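Please check this chain.
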Amino acid sequence: MSDNVTYDVIWQVLRREKQTNELLAIPKSFYADVSAFIDSIDKNHNEENDQLRANTVKLVTEMYEKRKQKILIYTALGRALPSSLPAEETSFYNDVMERFKSSQFTYTRHGDANKTTLESLLDMPEILLPSGSRVGPLVKNQYLTVDNEDDAAFLVSNALCKKVG
């Protein structure tokens, strides 16, 4: 797409993005193509190209911020994202999801003082612990409490969980 990226194309994408609450599908290479377009502008320094570069950067920045807002809304509502997100947006989404999962509310009852709180280090299916009890399925960064020290030691020593606190 890099040969097809122009200021007008970027402006049209931003205009369409502003007109809807949906996160529109854009090519995975969109930001790389825009960078190539900006690099091509930088090759010819003159006042007109400097203004074109500044305006292009402003448009792309505005579009990226708008799309980040939509990604946050999709995440909060549990909606599926378009399948063709550029790497920059996929990275942002993954960072948000990691933070979202790691900040889940946990509650400890008064009688749970002798239990060990752990945080899962990866997504895992239901597993059988040495005590015979089961745990899971868990998502990465999910908290759990274990009342058997051997079970806690098993999960930690096998790099499935880490102790919290």
